[in-house]
Amino acid sequence: MRAIRNLNGTKTAKICLPVFYRAVHNSAKYESILTGSCETLNAVVQPYGSIPGPKPLPLLGNTWRFIPYIGDFQIDHIDKVSMRLYKKYGKVVKMEGLLGRPDMVFLFDPVEVENVFRREDSLPLRPSMPSLSYYKHVLRKDFFGDLAGVISVHGENWQKFRSKVNQIMLQPRSAKMYTDAISSTAQQFLDRIDQIKDSKCQVPDDFLNEIHKWSLESLARIALDVRMGCLDDHPPEDTQKLIDAINTFFLNVPVLELKIPFWRLFNTSTFKQYIEALDSIREICLKYINISMENLKKNGGCIDRHQLSVMQKVLDKEQDAKLASILALDMFLVGVDTLTIFENTSNSVASILYQLAIHPEKQEKIHQELNSILPNSDTEITNENMEQMSYLKACIKETLRMYPVVIGNGRETTADCIIGGYHVPKGVQIVFQHYVMSNEEEYFKNSNQFLPERWLKNNCLNRQAHPFVSLPFGYGKRMCLGKRFAELEMLILLAKIFQKYEVKYHHEALDYFIHPMYTPKGPLKLTFSSKNK
Ligand code: HEM
Questions:
Q1: What's the pLDDT at 397?
Q2: I need a labelling partner for 13 at 20 to 30 A (CA). Which of 57, 66, 110, 403 fits?
Q3: Within a domain: residue 381?
Q4: Is 78 inside a domain boundary?
Q5: Contacts of 247 (CB under 8 A, 6+ apart)
Q6: Domain carrying residue 294
Q7: What CATH number corresponds to the domain at position 204?
């Protein structure tokens, strides 16, 4: 008998190791040890050092692989790098020696991903982005203090925060209260499309920036019940400044995190730009957070509780202004270590529009579905008729399967444990390679084909998929806090777009790249022709 530790090291149960091992490893490979002794298990579990992976060089580790012209790893093509590692080394791969970072173990096996998630206990730890952690916990500690939100925050501080906002953020009915606000922002976006498209109905090259503005405006309505005016003809200066700061933040993240981390030694120009960007994001968000607080104070008891923004609800429930404003800030700055949510949502929308533009036969099915659910061009979208949009929902899922904006997610081990048949020590970052798994024939039949049908109930393709292959919003206690809002925002916007337009793309096919979200590379020169014409 032996005490078993889960990923964060707490002892869960006393159990004979072979029995435990069977519970966590369903593969036949380990069946034989069931009849053996605990010593047999030790012989079967392989040492950490034997996990295959690219070998580090003395001093430069594996970081040299990111050096242009010398190395073969490209920061904006981590998708292709991950695919190559999988093909070369198999389902469990170790990436060690990235200077300034702990070892990483990549998992390309849904059974192992499930095992790690299922063993998660109350305080799961998602690997932090050291530069963001430094910003929150060292550089701007005076501002964030102990209540640093959920991003790059762990342990009891994370739990304390998350437990206060979980219900408000994750209950499906909470999100549905915002349908009208989300719908009216989506309508503004459609008006904006009509305004900016040219005589051939094509939108300008910087259309992604317009989608970012929609997403930011939508988020401001949900989080703060404030109109930022992002989609106005002359948007306030600070809205574009906020989008630019977030883009700067993104462009600098991979350089700070994956290249040689000189920023730890001195203020490199990239690091300075990064900090300036984070400060701008914080200041601009705080301005709108204060406006929202003032509105609440002014209207006091007259406000209908159902109409409150997420931040106002937290304020109302917890009576803690600091907690409410840090949540709102996190909603804008949801680092998830490399991502900011409104860009997450907007990149997903960009990718879905592009996929449907290049798959007109699938778009046609959406038109048919919407024609029956929303028969007139002015039929409103409601919580009830959204329930029937199963094909549109399937198209969203299929795009996020093939092109998940977050190509991999992860957890950090806080104690020695066994993963994938290997001993894995404390402090290792386990990376779930969802992009690679989702595009593998082994896990999805016809994986390289865009087949939304596979997500429809009772479809035979659907039954074959392992539920832990495609997890665009993560899983477990640390899963995406904004999942419900993101799904609702995307569904309403896309339903409105396809209710009104036929969307086409007449140019060269776009590749995808990491920027640092996984997104189509190149201008989204879509055409939006009115269906009624
Ligand atoms: C399509 C849009 C989105 C995608 C694909 C996405 C994806 C993700 C993923 C993969 C994670 C990590 C989950 C895990 O570790 O298991 C995450 C975390 C998070 N997301 Fe999202 N997200 C999206 C939109 C949003 C929105 C709109 C919000 C807020 C309104 C949001 C708030 C958060 C927060 C706060 C976390 C951190 C949770 C924690 O660590 O406790 N996300 N998201």
A1: 97
A2: 110
A3: yes
A4: no
A5: none
A6: 130-530
A7: 1.10.630.10
User: Residues with beta carbon inside 6 Å of ligand 1?
Assistant: 126, 150-151, 162, 330-331, 334, 336, 341, 344-345, 348, 405-406, 409, 472-476, 478-482, 485-486
Q: Residue 477 has which token pair? A: 């206690």
Closest atom, ligand 1, to C-alpha of 474: 16
**Sign (positive/negative) of CA torsion 393, 395, 396, 401?**
positive
Mutate to test the pocket of ligand 1, among 285, 334, 395 (most ligand atoms within 8 A of CB): 334
Tell me the per-residue pLDDT of 274-289, one tens digit each, with 9 for 90 and over.
Answer: 999 888 888 887 888 7
Q: Is 302 annotated as a binding residue?
A: no
pLDDT tens readout for residues 119-153? 887 788 887 777 877 887 788 888 776 655 555 56
Task: For residue 160, count other CB atoms closer than 10 A to its CB.
Answer: 13
Phi then psi for residue 76, to 5 deg, are -85, 5
Residue 465: pLDDT band with limits 50, 70, 90: confident
Note the pTM of the prediction, 2 decimals.
0.86
Q: Whole-angstrom Cα distance, residue 208 to residue 206? A: 5
Q: Count other Cβ atoms within 10 Å, centred on residue 139.
A: 14
| Mean pLDDT of the region 6-28 | 36
Count up the domains in the chain and report the number: 1
CB atoms within 10 A of CB 268: 17
- Is 47 part of any domain? no
Asked if residue 13 has pLDDT above 50, the reply is no
Residue 42 lies inside a defined structural domain of this protein: no
Q: In what order do the strands lie in the sheet with 429-432?
A: 92-95, 104-107, 429-432, 409-412
CA pair distance 70, 34, nearest whole angstrom: 48
Interface TM-score (ipTM) > 0.95:
yes
Q: Can you read off the two tokens belonging to residue 6?
A: 């889960």
Residue 214: exposure state from Cβ atoms within 10 A (0-12, 13-18, ≥19): buried
pLDDT band of 311, cuts 50, 70, 90: confident
